[in-house]
Amino acid sequence: MPTIDIDKQELFDYLGNQFDTASFRELCFEFGIELEEDSSEKGQLAEGERAQLKIDIPANRYDLLCFEGVSRALGVFLRREDPPTYKVVPAAEPHRITVSAECAQVRPFVVGAVLRGVTLTAERYQSFIDLQDKLHHNLCKKRELVSIGTHDLDTVEGPFTYEAQRPEDIQFVPLNQTESMNGRRVIEFYEDDQHIKKILHIIRDSPVYPVVYDAKRRVMSLPPLINSEHSKISLDTRNILIEITATDLTKVNMTLNILVTMFSKYCNEPFTVEPVEVVYPDGKKFVYPELEQRLMATTGEYLNGIVGIEKSNDEISELLKKMSLEAEVQGDKINVKLPATRPDILQECDIAEDLAIAFGYNRIPRVQNNEATVAAPHPLNKLSDIVRREIALAGWTEALTLSLCSHDNNFAHLRRKDNGDEVVVLENPKSSENQICRTLLLPGLLKTVCENKRYALPLRVFEVSDVVLKNAAVERGAQNQRHACALYASNEARFEIVQGLLDEVMKSLNVVSVVEANKGVRYCLEEADIPTYLPGRGANVMLINEDGSSLELGTIGILHPEVLGNFDLKTPVSAFEINIEPFL
Question: What is the per-residue pLDDT across 188-209, written as a single tens digit (0 to 9) for each?
Fold first, then answer.
């Protein structure tokens, strides 16, 4: 949980001097933050030292990481002020940042904005710097995802370019230094710096370094490391250019919005921001910042039910204003306008949380729950336990394998082809062994047998677990499916053993073989050419319904020698794998 230090007297003055430490601690509790420490309570302050309040901020409330954010939010909460309206004011000739194609190798995204006519004091300047540090450590993930650069706009000239250059070709004087350095020298120079050395690894080994130039080819910043001394901000700065580079477009927009909404308060026209146009190599143009309010619809019935109160839609609308949320009532619906400062609100339940804070958790009536409930197992888990018990009683050992595996284990090593519409692929896997979500349990059991070859044969292992399959019909684009897989490894394939086990599992589910019945729900093996199994030694397991329709449950067979070799096995293996969800 982030912690910020705020000048006690300055905050109390802003809130109308109506608090002492005890009452302010209670206010923090009501608002959902926590006063951790008041330095004036620790003893005598040194001469000239001002008391500081140390406040713990929820990890998702990036808008509260500075004095401006906390004071504004508490002022609205106490109804001393109205929530501000943030506006992007078009400039006659908006500044432009042109991105070079080489930036895709290191940090592909950049956004920007201009704060015009800013009045800075020593306190405001320090708050501006502190907010950037807090964002860097939290939302920006220590600059790996996002890096902020701020510049005195009057010291540089647009249009600007965002490029990726060889480190030897970059020459500038870093912030608060006097020596001109190239990119390599910058890395060497800051190896001993207690702060910057922690982020050098982000670009150290890259063949090109990201760099921002102005129209005269003067370096403005070397993200994510440091800005240039030339464009340094001071108390005399009146116009601030903000450029933020990133590897994550969502995070960089959130960072820019928080920064400009907090400090646009000090512009000539408060809460206004000038846009910056970003032009990418493919010719696409984007204008930042994007401060439009998001609209989220909810209902009073839902919010009252979640919080446990009974308020009309109009009363709910008034309460939400205390949390800086505008709400309009339209019939049974409540349309909530979410400001750019609240990226933490993602669902209706987040609005319900703000409503509970505005109403007061301590005021929510206590109600006795008079409903009797009886616990019951989830049907799918109950079915899984039936299958597990039946296989275990037959003398087989259960395994629990990883749900992530390599692409080769799931396809090439089983002699299968990836058709592109089956497997969920991880965008940024940490290793080659964790590239995809498994679509079969068989690879995991084969690896289990491989790791246990030292034990006496036969090895009989099984698993009843979920696999993950793509499904464009569902909202998340993928779904879990419960499978049962059993594998028998010995000096002989003994196909009849896994077939017998499959038959016992089916009987436990009240499904018999077509050999035993010609009506009702039954199953059969249908010969098929399955690359994973030996030719003529593989079959599909088919479920035949009462109406005569059939459904493929899975496969059974003797594994192909090439498959065994791919998993470093030298003994014959028979196996089956079926989907058990149709038995629900």
Answer: 999 988 889 889 999 999 999 9
